[in-house]
Amino acid sequence: MFRVIFILIGVVFFFLLILSNTEAQQPPQVLSQNPSQNPFDSGLEFKPKNEIDVLIAASLKRHKIKPAPLCSDEVFIRRVYLDVIGTLPDIQAVKNFLADKKTDKRSRLIDHLLARNEFVDYWTLKWCDILRVKAEFPINLWPNGAMTYYRWIHGAVRTEMPYHQFARALLTSDGSNFRDGASNFYRAVPQKDAETLAENVALTFLGIRTGAWTPEKLQQLSVFFSRVGYKETAEWKEEIVFWIRKPLDKPEVVFPDGTKGTVRSDQDPREVFVDWLVSPSNEGFNRNIANRIWFWLFGYGLVHESDDFRPDNPPVHPEVLDYLCRELIDSDYCLKHLYRLILNSNTYQQSSIPNSKNKNNDSSITELFAVYPIRRMEAEVLQDALSRLFGVSVGYSSEVPEPFTNIPPRYRTIMLPDASITSSFLEMFGRPTRDTGMESDRNNGVTESQQLFLLNSTEVNNWVMKFLSNYRNTNRRPEEIRKMVDDIWLRFLSRYPTALEFRFVAEELRRQEKSGGQKVQDIVWALLNTKEFLCRH
Questions:
Q1: How many domains does the chain have?
Q2: Is the C or the N end of the chain the one with fewer CB within 10 Å?
């Protein structure tokens, strides 16, 4: 047992050394199957492709920073699959993409992914995080309410509901939390008082944390939600959200930007607020969603944190944010239009390895988007990736939320409707609690418990042993070794092995044929624990 552990550690160390050398911009020679000379960079310099790139390039020039070269096709297909549908590409998809010689293949792939069902599932997950879709404490939507809310959000994403209509539907919603999904917006809060509702609205639709506001300003916003009422029914845990038809104490109201308005005695104050909120002239509303989308695709916002807009936290590229806002309005608030603009830009398609011509390789290179930011896969995406790679089904059975919850194995993890469902894996890898609605509620940091789980857990070992059954009948002829190693690399890393990687693996397999099965097992364990597998890059 100890011998196996030492072998495993040695192999892991070797591959980490290889990858660290690659990240240090000493790329090894790549086999002929790989169309690029580097598995990470395409060798092409950054050149503006659309208006985003023009604005980014001008800003980087002012900062005297060189943008990174464009990423290779191998990196791009893996990156865009993870960023758009939260799924690793299968082997055939990678092979087809690498073999495609047409110059527009990246944009065609983007359109294909935006039209897939997984896009709806994955982006519903993102919306559920910030809209607090959770059955149990402290949100207490209860299972029926959480599922109804989830289905409403899923339907809005699937039908491509314009964003201003999406916001209006949530903010003016009434009805049963079990039948009218949008009404759960007013229940997905720790307390149902007007101030808490106002704080939730400011965070969700303006990207503002009201903790630094004066009590007077918060009270001014709270007025708009002071006539939201709740009524229980005879059905267990059901609640009706409704407009209390009682005039405000004063018809004059003040919006968060300081402008004033009037609410008639026969008018729902929420309608007045929404009219102000979704007005094309409201920069806060437009900037918030444009910045969120940028954050979702890069892992780092033009304004960072992405839900912390304030005067002393300006955007790093204000011209880019303004441009995205104009495009949002001109497209009638079509969010997919912004996805396409960003995904097709060379800013998004940069390598994750900084340009070697930069004198200082500091955090400003990432913050200014002179490189694609490396970040770990989310917990749900990682669980689905492992399930698919190793051919294991992960069903979810949980005593919480009550009553007993059972999610069949056919549902992928990114489709989970409720953050209350118990999962030690998801909790270990930073799934958000959905208590706050803040993006920072999700923790993508690396912890010791995660590393130990991936290095030495019985569960992962069982997955690996099942995976190895695909290669039990593989002999040690060169062509068989070639096919097996290519297959493993394509499954885990969405690319062919480099010459250095293949030479090392092939020599080990030929040198110790009797323990070849153990060697393959070590290789799989090693790849599983590499930064290249665990991270978006």
A1: 1
A2: N
